[in-house]
């Protein structure tokens, strides 16, 4: 009779199983590239999605980006940031930390600013997305872009698209009466004071330290004293 400590599989059996597993893995990785490509490029139902050769799952997705309808076919693990930059080539939105800590990736989705690195593209079917490219152009700048230029609200410029998208949404938040962490009265209409502005923009980090100029630019557009 076997004791509780008697192995149920011999060392020789274990080696045979291990060798068979390794052979199976190498056989699957040797699948012709052409076969992998065809399965990746042939997504099926629009809403149901399909498996991708990389082991993920692909879905079709419709977004309105800067007022233009865009159709995408993405791995479900794709962040909104990567979909904008890699799939739509809208590289104005920057990837700083990719962890929700710097605000460089801020875009406006359905009127609210979000960190696009922290959300999956497939969570935004049908959404209206505004990136820095959608706010204005060098020839026809948004008032916030013009104010950043006027007040030197940037140095290297890496954080600037996120700062500007965030600032535009902050002014809208204040107009809509959305309170912040420092609002003394949650029922009163907020005023864009210096304290409110600094709190609301605190998720946008500027490594160049252009903060005082950024505050001046936003204050001018908001028409308040900060
Ligand atoms: S890149 Fe998204 S918060 Fe830093
Ligand atoms: S301008 Fe360089 S990080 Fe802000």
CATH architecture classification of the largest domain: Roll
Beta percentage is: 5-15%
Would you list the SSEs in sequence order as H and E?
Answer: HHEEEHEEEHHHHH
Total domains: 2
Residues in helices, as a percent range = 25-40%
Name the bound molecules: FE2/S2 (inorganic) cluster
- What is the CATH C level class of the largest domain, in words? Alpha Beta
Describe the sheet with the most strands. 6 strands, mixed
Q: Which radius of gyration do the C-alpha atoms yield?
A: 25 Å
Mean pLDDT: 83
Extract low-pLDDT stretches: 1-47
**Distance between the terminal alpha carbons, to the nearest Å?**
84 Å
Structural class: alpha+beta
3D architecture notes:
The protein is an alpha+beta fold and 226 residues long. The protein has two domains: 90 residues, Ubiquitin-like (UB roll) (Roll); 80 residues, DNA polymerase, domain 1 (Orthogonal Bundle), CATH 1.10.150.120. A hairpin with a 2-residue loop joins strand 2 and strand 3. Helix 5 crosses helix 8. The radius of gyration is 25 Å and the shape is globular. The N terminus is likely disordered. It binds FE2/S2 (inorganic) cluster (2 copies). One FE2/S2 (inorganic) cluster binds next to loops.
Q: What would you say about this model in short?
A:
The chain is α+β, with helices and mostly antiparallel strands.
What's the helix and strand layout?
Layout: H1 11-29, H2 33-40, E1 50-51, E2 57-65, E3 68-75, H3 80-87, E4 106-109, E5 112-115, E6 128-130, H4 132-135, H5 143-150, H6 160-175, H7 194-200, H8 211-222
Parallel strand pairs: 2-6
Antiparallel strand pairs: 1-2, 2-3, 4-5, 4-6
Helix pairs in contact: 5-8
Bound molecules: FE2/S2 (inorganic) cluster (FES) (2 copies).
One FE2/S2 (inorganic) cluster binds at residues 95-98, 100-105, 115, 117.
